[in-house]
Structures are given as C-alpha cells and as structure tokens.
Design goal:
five-stranded mixed sheet, Uracil-DNA_glycosylase-like, about 15% strand, MUG/TDG, 5 strands, uracil DNA N-glycosylase activity, pyrimidine-specific mismatch base pair DNA N-glycosylase activity
C-alpha cells in the first residue's frame, strides 16, 4: 500500500476493524472513539496525518520522540496501549449510534477487567459521555472507575477538534502522565 491511501482504499476501509495494541499491566490504555477510514486503510491507530494524538503523546512526555502511527507496536515498551470504544471504521465519529457507543463502553469494561491497565484514558469527551451515561463529565480525572481502574478523559485529538490547540492537548496529556507516575 502507498504511504497515503487512495480514495478507493479509503472507501474500501469502511467498516473494517484494526487490532488493539494491548497487553496485561500497561501503565495507560488509551481508548479512542473508533478508527477512521485512514486508520482502517493503514491498520494503524490515529493514522490520519492531521490527527494530533502522536504529537500530544510525545509532547506530554509519554515517549522520548514522536512515534509515527506505523510504530504503534512500540507503545507497550513504554507501558502504553491503544483500543477503541467502537471497533468499526467510519468516515466520521458522528456515524456511530448511541447504542454502539454504549455497547462499546460495556466491551471496554470487559477489556479493562481482563488486561488491568493502571489507568484508562478515553480520548473523546463526547463519546465518553454517551458510552458511560455521564452527560456532565469534563476533561480530566473522573470520580468513576472502569472495572476498578482509574479513568481519565482527554480531548479528541482529531484535527477537526480545532478549539483544542496542539499545546493545550499536550498539556492535558502531560497532566495525565504526571498523575500516572
């Protein structure tokens, strides 16, 4: 596959799933909303070039350098992993139904019980609110836990979430990193 998926490859990625990057005992399990078509076409989480997850992860102090999405397999060596609330790829997160998000929250709870990360970080406040029935939740640490695991909610790093600047995203990631150390 070329570095940038073609329009046909992106269209063909609709509804695909990509593998989690997960293992027992991680320091932080990051949970995205669902993979976009770019991620579905490449098989890498947060793969669209405008997504700010990888820069925020580095600038927040989790990795010594900015990883490329194709290097996601290195995350467990830093005690990190990635999963999603909903596994299927879509062009936009708003294509997901509330029922899918709630079912994804139940699946995530089972996954967290199995793998026991020290902290769960859900990346996307709106999806978290829907998945877990917390309409007034705000970004940051949550009082609730998921399967006895502390929970932190981060802003969605999509380039479409423009009111969160790269610096502000990095600061949120840095606060999470400080809390988990």
């Amino acid at each position: 596959m070329p570095d940038r998926p073609t329009a046909d490859q992106l269209a063909a990625a609709h509804g695909r799933t990509i593998d989690d990057v997960i293992e027992p005992g991680l320091r932080v399990l990051f949970c995205g909303i669902n993979p976009g078509l770019y991620s579905g076409a490449t098989g890498h989480h947060f793969a669209r070039p405008g997504n700010r997850f990888w820069p925020a992860l580095h600038r927040g102090g989790f990795t010594p350098r900015q990883l490329a999405p194709s290097e996601q397999g290195e995350l467990p060596s830093y005690g990190l992993g990635i999963t999603n609330l909903v596994a299927r790829t879509t062009a936009r997160a708003d294509e997901l139904t509330a029922e899918e998000l709630r079912a994804g929250g139940e699946d995530l709870t089972r996954k967290v019980a199995k793998y026991r990360p020290r902290l769960l970080a859900i990346v996307g406040i709106t999806a978290y609110r829907t998945a877990f029935g917390r309409p007034k939740a705000v970004v940051g640490p949550q009082k609730e836990q998921v399967s006895d695991t502390p929970l932190w909610v981060l802003p969605n790093p999509s380039g479409l979430n423009a009111h969160w600047t790269p610096a502000a995203l990095a600061e949120e990631f840095a606060q999470l990193r400080a809390a988990v150390q």
